[in-house]
Write a structure and sequence with these properties.
The complex is a heterodimer.
Chain A lengths: L1 E8 L4 E7 L1 H6 L5 E5 L8 E9 L4 E7 L3 H7 L6 E2 L1 E6 L10 E7 L3 H13 L3 E8 L8 H7 L2 E6 L6 E2 L3 H10 L4 E5 L2 H11 L6 E4 L15 E4 L2 E4 H4 L2 E3 L5 H8 L3 H11 L11
Parallel strand pairs in A: 8-9, 8-12, 9-10, 10-11, 12-13
Antiparallel strand pairs in A: 1-2, 1-6, 2-5, 3-4, 3-7, 4-5, 13-16, 14-15
Chain B lengths: L4 H15 L6 H6 L10 H4 L12 H9 L8 H4 L7 H10 L2 H9 L5 H7 L11 H5 L9 H14 L15 E5 L3 H12 L3 E5 L8 H4 L8 H13 L3 E3 L10 H6 L5 E4 L5 E2 L12 E3 H9 L18 E5 L3 H12 L4 E5 L11 H9 L3 E3 L2 E8 L5 E14 L5 E5 L5 E4 L2 E4 L3 E2 L3 H5 L25 E3 L2 H4 L4 H20 L2
Parallel strand pairs in B: 1-2, 1-4, 2-3, 4-16, 6-14, 7-8, 7-14, 8-9
Antiparallel strand pairs in B: 5-15, 10-11, 11-12, 11-13
Helix pairs in contact in B: 1-4, 4-6, 4-10, 6-7, 6-10, 7-10, 8-10, 11-20, 15-16
The chains are: A alpha/beta, B alpha/beta.
């Protein structure tokens, strides 16, 4: 049982929770994830990237968007409640080393798992530029934390309500054109990672992406998370979650992410009950 | 007409009354008809997940036990991987002393209610049965597995099982990795000796393949939970959500946590694919994924489960083993109209149990023998639309003793499907190998052990089950768990 120590609502649909998990906090590294399951017979296993950890307090932090029925159930939990099942750390850590200049690009909720990577890249002696993108001002997360660590932080919003009115690919392209960039890390919705990879490809800049595919066990057993990378099948859970964005078959990935789309849409209608979220608001 | 359990029982009661009138000679015993296993009507069971085989009635089990000739040479025992004293327990079952029968089995096997259901008896104990030999038909052998199941169910349902005695605390502690059949039996034997035993399971439920792999209709999860409860009552500690190789390494279990010995029973948990074109299309699943969704996550209960499972009309299952049968029959129960098992050889070469094949046929599963999948064809949305197959012929015997299948060029054609389930086996999970320095493995990735002790190349580290065997059976895994536990108990005593 893992106790929820703190809970914050970062935006209409985005929540941050600090959860007691001393053994995971002790060994986790940037880029790794956990799987949680609420303990009911019918609850789903949900993979979530670790946004932060404190080995002294023995806690990990997760940031998630209440988009499906299961994440809504987690969002209903309060401080002091327990999460029955928490497995981790899973996947391989980010390949952190001294690259030189690293541009870390976060889209929406992807800015959360990006934070420990920014910290680690900085600690490895890199100059780190951060690009944070969101649909609207309200959904920009992690800005303060990023500003405290990174050399530069650029914020963009789709509607221009905060920062530059642009997609993350605009400043990314500009930086690639005007500065020497040695590595790009892009985490966000698959479409955003696809276009970030397409943006950096002409410049030949090594681009790491972190994939959050459909997954059940997270230990290599189910193969539901498989992706095509450089023509080979890879499992996100054990071979990833990070891959060279230039080698990922994005179209196949996007199709596979939609495997249960119709079934999930049906479920989504039920799941807003009990939460103060209106359909389509976030 | 599918016979009802009551009908089989009525017939059995009449026959039993008759048999009890006289002293039975070997000839009389030979003439007693094999008792048919009562089962759910196929027309009904394809709409539910309940167990298919319903178990013998008391009259049936008594009659079936009377078919045993009590051979002096006990040939059946040599077919049993854990050498259960089969004639002895059958004799007790024949007398109606089921508790005594169960305790004889439990001297050798921890999980009779599981093994009675899932063991391939027709290639083990029942293959050597004199009755079957005399009738030149293994299916006419004494139904040892069904009797085993009856006595185990009887003692469970009547509260006659006793929690095994645990020895005085030895001060030693053992980590058991995984909670499948190998680990369950190793844990029980180690705990009995008085060691502290901590079992580490990565998933949120305990039982390994018994809970995520084998469907409810073949092995009710209630039975697995019951067996796990007995381990808990013995004082075995279970840590779920704990992945050795990630949360902790083998080395850390020794150095940080102070364990004195470790048993690895982490199983064969990495699904194989064919590596054919289109295999990453939407609607292609490993059998592991499909079955885990249904069994572990209860996705078949679509009204309650939060884990989705694919809605299919036409399902192709690749493979011919028990897992392929489980996947095909699960797909049928989830509402698929057509389920085809595509297998490159003929029925005779199928590794699946005869009983499972028969059940699948009764349920309307189609078998496409002598065909091999060549590629999976997706539609414009990337979803499976068809499978291209090629016709095969049987050639000479290969290294594994089975006749090889040879593709007949020019016979490629498309068969329409919307779902593909790949059930062609598993490779060992690479995690422990990758994170444990000095542990010797085969080229395939299975851990190398001394077969007489289960000892690995690392001091104090033992292994058993599918991580050693590749992909085998519940009973073989259990046997290895026991072998290792025995050697570990000796190793720990000498520390």
């Amino acid at each position: 049982m893992n106790k929820i120590i703190t809970k914050k609502q970062l935006s209409a649909e985005v929540f941050e929770m600090e959860i007691e998990a001393p053994e995971i906090a002790e060994v986790r590294k940037a880029g790794q994830f956990i799987i949680l399951q609420l303990g009911g017979e019918f609850d789903e296993r949900i993979p979530l990237t670790i946004a932060d950890a404190d080995s002294v307090r023995g806690t990990i932090t997760i940031i998630f968007q209440a988009v499906g029925e299961s994440t809504h159930h987690i969002a209903l939990l309060e401080e002091g409640d327990h999460i029955a099942n928490l497995l981790g750390p899973l996947g391989n850590p980010t390949d952190v080393r001294h690259y030189g200049h690293v541009v870390c690009t976060g889209g929406g909720i992807g800015s959360a798992p990006l934070f420990p990577i920014v910290e680690a890249m900085k600690a490895a002696g890199n100059t780190v530029t951060v690009i944070l993108g969101a649909r609207t001002k309200e959904l920009v997360i992690m800005e303060e934390k990023m500003r405290a660590v990174a050399d530069e932080v650029i914020v963009v919003t789709d509607d221009g309500s905060y920062g530059e009115k642009a997609l993350v690919t605009a400043p990314l392209k500009r930086i690639c054109e005007t500065a020497k960039v040695d590595c790009v890390v892009a985490i966000g919705p698959p479409v955003m990672m696809k276009f970030a990879s397409l943006t950096t490809k002409p410049f030949g800049i090594y681009t790491l992406v972190s994939l959050n595919t459909i997954m059940i066990d997270g230990t290599g057993m189910c193969g539901g998370c498989r992706v095509t990378v450089d023509g080979h099948t890879r499992f996100v859970c054990v071979d990833g979650p990070e891959f060279d964005g230039h080698l990922v078959d994005w179209d196949n990935l996007l199709l596979r992410m939609g495997t249960y789309k119709t079934q999930e849409e049906e479920a989504h209608h039920r799941c807003h009950i009990g939460l103060d979220i209106k359909e389509g608001e976030a | 007409m599918h016979p009802k359990k009551e009908q089989l029982d009525d017939a059995a009661k009449l026959l039993l009354a008759e048999l009890e009138q006289k002293e039975l000679t070997a000839k009389d015993r030979n003439q007693i008809p094999l008792q048919e296993m009562p089962s759910q009507d196929p027309r009904e069971r394809i709409f539910n997940m309940d167990e298919v085989a319903l178990g013998y009635t008391e009259a049936q089990v008594r009659i079936e036990a009377l078919r045993c000739l009590q051979c002096k040479t006990k040939p059946c025992i040599k077919g049993c991987p854990v050498e259960i004293d089969i004639p002895a327990f059958i004799l007790e079952a024949g007398k109606g002393d089921y508790a005594r029968a169960a305790s004889i089995i439990k001297e050798s096997s921890l999980l009779p209610s599981v093994c009675g259901r899932v063991c391939p008896q027709e290639v083990q104990c029942q293959l050597y049965c004199t009755v079957g030999k005399a009738k030149k038909d293994v299916e006419q052998s004494v139904s040892i597995g069904r009797i085993e199941r009856f006595v185990a169910d009887y003692t469970r349902e009547h509260g006659l099982d006793e929690v095994p005695q645990v020895g005085a605390d030895t001060g030693k502690s053992v980590a058991v990795i995984g909670s499948g059949p190998a680990s369950l039996s190793a844990a029980a034997d180690l705990r009995r000796e008085g060691h502290r035993v901590v079992m580490f399971e990565a998933l949120h439920k305990v039982g390994g393949v018994l809970v995520y792999g084998i469907p409810e209709f073949r092995l009710p999860k209630e039975i697995v939970n019951y067996e796990v409860d007995i381990l808990l009552k013995m004082g075995v500690e279970i840590r779920k959500n704990y992945l050795i190789g990630k949360t902790r390494t083998i080395d850390e279990l020794f150095k940080k946590d102070g364990f004195d010995a470790i048993f690895i029973g982490s199983g064969a948990g990495l699904p194989k694919f064919l590596n054919i074109e289109g295999e990453n299309s939407v609607g292609v699943f490993s059998a592991n994924e499909y079955l885990t969704r249904s069994n572990l996550m209860r996705a078949y209960d679509t009204n309650n489960a939060l884990t989705p499972i694919y809605h299919s009309k036409r399902v192709a299952v690749f493979g011919g083993g028990n897992v392929a049968m489980d996947a095909a029959r699960t797909a049928k129960r989830l509402g698929a109209e057509v389920v085809s098992v595509i297998y490159r050889r003929t029925e005779a070469e199928m590794p699946a149990r005869r009983e499972e094949i028969a059940h699948a046929k009764e349920e309307g599963i189609e078998f496409v023998f002598l065909h091999a999948p060549m590629r999976i064809v997706p539609d414009e949305k990337g979803r499976v639309e068809a499978v291209e197959v090629i016709r095969c012929e049987l050639g000479p015997e290969g290294e594994d003793g089975r006749r090889r299948s040879i593709m007949v060029e020019g016979t490629e054609h498309l068969r329409p499907y919307d779902t593909v389930i790949v059930a062609i086996g598993n490779d060992p999970n690479p995690l422990i190998k990758a994170t444990t320095k000095g542990i010797e493995t085969t080229r395939k990735g299975t851990i190398i052990v001394d077969p007489s002790t289960g000892a690995t190349s690392l001091k104090g580290v033992y292994a058993g089950g599918d991580i050693v065997l590749g992909a085998a059976t519940v009973i073989l895994a259990m046997g290895q768990g026991r072998t290792a536990a025995k050697a570990m108990n000796e190793y720990l005593a000498a520390l």
